[in-house]
Amino acid sequence: MPRYADEEAPRHSNRAPYRSPARSPARHHEAEEINQSLCLFVPVVQDLCLRRCPHRASSPTGTVTRTNEGRQAAFETRMAMQRELDAARSQLRSMEREMDDLQRQAVGARDEAAVARSENGRLQDELRSCRERLNAALDSQQELLGKNAQKHELLIDLQAQVAGLRDEIVDKDARARVLEDTVARLEQELRTARHQASADNSARDAYANLSQEHDVTRSELRSIRSDHASREAHLRTLEADRAALRADVSAMHERIIMMERELDLAKSQAESANGAEAAFRDHLASKDDLIAELHRQKVEIEAEFAQFRSMADGQTRSLENQLDGARAKEQMLEDNLRTLHRTLGRQAAAAMPNPQYPLPVTNVSTRYVPVREVPRAPIRESVIYRTHRYEVHEPARPDPTGGVREVSRRVRRYMDLVEEKDEAERLADIARERLRRSLREDQ
């Protein structure tokens, strides 16, 4: 089928018309990415070529002809773009290294927070055990003080009873002495009476009465002596009880001294635990400063990344505008090329001696396909010389989207690292809040 109304189908062509092969969705997506990248770079190359070779704009064939200057301009443009891409890659590598450093610092801070959390748990357990021991010592001291008070009251009562018994014993001794003096006096009187018994019968009666009184007095004296012995035995038992109570009181006093020493030791351990807790709080404060510094660096990196993204968006918009202009120029050049082909065909047909059998303008079927619709296809351009058209085949260009894919991959990696860092900071804040809550509960 001829493309235009004034063209004829090729007569001497054995080649089948071009048909685009069926492509998979992945292949189609890759081709779309390559076309977009080509659409971004082609207008820049065309503008640079037109700036370096202004005579190309006035050339009737447009971009059909190629010169060394055009290839040199394209090469320089490609090298400049490659340098810019290398600079962007180096910047991304440096940003990736910085993010790796920040991630390592976050991991180190997480490990230190875990160690500090375990140390804080150990210190809390020690403080809890010291507190329990202190409470137990205080309770035992209170019990001992209560028991000591009861025994002290019992000792005071026993001392009062001993004092009363001593007074009674003293009274009994005085009474016994009086009775002994009376018995001695009565015996003396009895002896005198015995001496007088032989002389007087009345003395016998007095003697009998005195003997009876003496027996009564002796029985009273025996009862007093037995009572005195029982009182002395009771006094000895009271003295033994008093010595046992004194031994118990001294043992309790020693136990109280030992408990006071344990209490002082527990207080010193509590003070050391409080010092360790203060040191740990200072360590946490230093870690908070480090996390604040990391957050500040993160904010700076995010600002730089936002600036870089805004610059990339601006460049993308400018490249899209240039691409629209290049498409318009391409359409205009295609129209001019079609008009030129028709004019050359008519001129060749008019110049031939036998116009009823015109020679074909070309021996290849002509089909105008934009470059962006055929990804990775060799560029085919024709050079018109007189009335013949020669095919020029060039090798396929290298894939220019490799750098773009690498940049997008590294940008995604950077965003993942930023998310990981945010997650690490969130976990550190949660751990710090739990630690502060536990410290408040312990206090």
Automatic annotation (TrEMBL):
Residues 78-133, 169-196, 284-336, 414-441 form a coiled coil. The keyword Coiled coil applies. It comes from the Eukaryota. Keywords: Coiled coil. Residues 1-29 are annotated as: Disordered. Residues 1-11 have a biased composition (Basic and acidic residues). This is Uncharacterized protein. It comes from Monosiga brevicollis.
